[in-house]
Amino acid sequence: MADTKYIFVTGGVVSSLGKGIIAASLGKLLQARGYKVTIQKFDPYINIDPGTLNPYEHGECYVTVDGHEADLDLGHYERFLNIQTTKDNNITTGRIYQNVIEKERRGDYLGKTVQVIPHITDEIKRNIKSFGVKNKFDFVITEIGGTVGDIESTPFLEAVRQLRWELGKNCFCIHLTYVPYIAAAGEVKTKPTQHSVKELQTLGIQPDMLVLRTEKKLSKEILDKVALFCNVELDAVIQSIDVSTIYEVPVMIQKQGMDEVLLRKMNMPIGEKPNLEDWNAFLQKRKEAKKNVIIKLVGKYVELPDAYKSINEALLQSAIYHDRHLVLEMCHSEKITGENVAEILKDADGIVIAPGFGQRGIDGKFAALKYARENDIPTLGICLGMQCMVIEFARNVLGLTDANSSEMDPKAKDLVIDLMEKQKHITNMGATMRLGAYDCVLKKGSLANKAYGKTKIQERHRHRYEFNNNYKEQFEAAGMKCTGINPETDLVEVVEIPQLRWFLGAQFHPEYNSTVVSPNPLFMSFMDAAAKAP
Ligand code: GLN
Questions:
Q1: How many CA atoms lie within 13 A of 171 on its CB side?
Q2: Which of 133, 194, 153, 119 is nearest to 6 (CA)?
Q3: 433 CA: nearest ligand 1 atom
Q4: Which ligand 1 atom is the nearest neighbour of the CA of 382?
Q5: How far is the CA of 371 from the centre of ligand 1 (A)?
Q6: CB contact set of 201 (below 8 Å; sequence gap of 6+)
Q7: Banded pLDDT at 419 (limits 50, 70, 90)
Q8: 209 CB under 6 A from ligand 1?
Q9: What is the pTM of this model?
Q10: Is residue 292 within 8 Å of residue 323, measured between CB atoms?
Q11: End-to-end alpha-carbon separation of the chain, Å?
Q12: Can you tell me the mean pLDDT for 423-445?
């Protein structure tokens, strides 16, 4: 087998230009040409992982099958490439330093002064190279978080410089920049891009390709200018114009030959035109969807578009497969009360009760759930959303008026949601939840079983609290059934009310496992019910 090739994606000028989407789109195109591809993200912050960051800081925390709390870009990688990522796909400065410090304590560097160069940069390089070799990937695309010029990302860029030198033709650097349009002058400006490339050059990295993020289509003249000033060949200056959905990006960059240019420059066979049949069929369905489906997402981070990223994407995918245009309305759980809930939710075809932590906004979730249950609106509760479903049912159907989760009120009389036994002695907050994929057995004939079309499934988790099995009989007798159980621990993973049209709570997060070509079955089933809503 040929050597693994390494592609680096850096960003300049400003953050949030969509490096993750460009990396995922390029990965998609290479994969569609038959190559084995993965994408890795380096985050320059000191946290060991984003698991301890709240969504205001860092958007959604994504969870991999092997239980790693990861950057949300890994969600894009999975959704685009239909692959499963792991702990190796996301590494922070904190983890690099932790590894180096552990080695130092073990005595691996005895006699040496431990320094950023070579010890930190070597550890970064090891995490890039060993990943590619271990898994026999044809391409490892590595996205470097942050913006060129940040103090924090400098060791990563130094590692890239060294790898470029060591790997020669097996290394390729893509730099993503911004070309602003100045309305008053009626012109697009390339100067920030020139400066950004210069900044990169001062670190010893000459980009092989530039991706220019722009709101307006750039003329040949502008592209020529950028090529000339940045020492990049014209065919390697790609423009990334705003498109109506991120899923159009692979098609847009493919039209400009981005994948072909890269393969040619890396001396790799170009082969057949990428097979994007499934992908294009999905985009076509999106364009043709005429009818709306209104989904209301009840959560406390409504002002942050990235906080529920995977849920939004899973809803969008399943809506498109049901020939529906998704109208997703975010409903602030702190603002929902018994008085205004009907007004807020009355036109919903389906309701999603979001995951989360802590007391804030919880009463709004209960009010929404009571309304949804009493009015038989298709409802999906995810993680905390499922736990709220259980508590609301306990209070209003079982008459356990003081029912709660020990997360909200450890002194409540009926702790229908309680801390897992394994969690009781935990003192460290980082990476200690019940994380990653676990088996779940679904009851034959249940809604969940029908949705998945099988009885044994695996879904990903991120929680400390669980359904209290002491109450199971009481719930089942009153009509809320426990239809998904972990076979080893007996933990309840799914509850549902079969008397209602579609009312189900999952302790796991189905949204982490939903891709463009393989949408999650639970979301598909939920959307089916929502699309049929009268
Ligand atoms: N806070 C709840 C728990 O830890 C739910 C977590 C979640 O929604 N991800 O069990």
A1: 18
A2: 133
A3: 4
A4: 8
A5: 22
A6: none
A7: confident
A8: no
A9: 0.95
A10: no
A11: 57
A12: 90
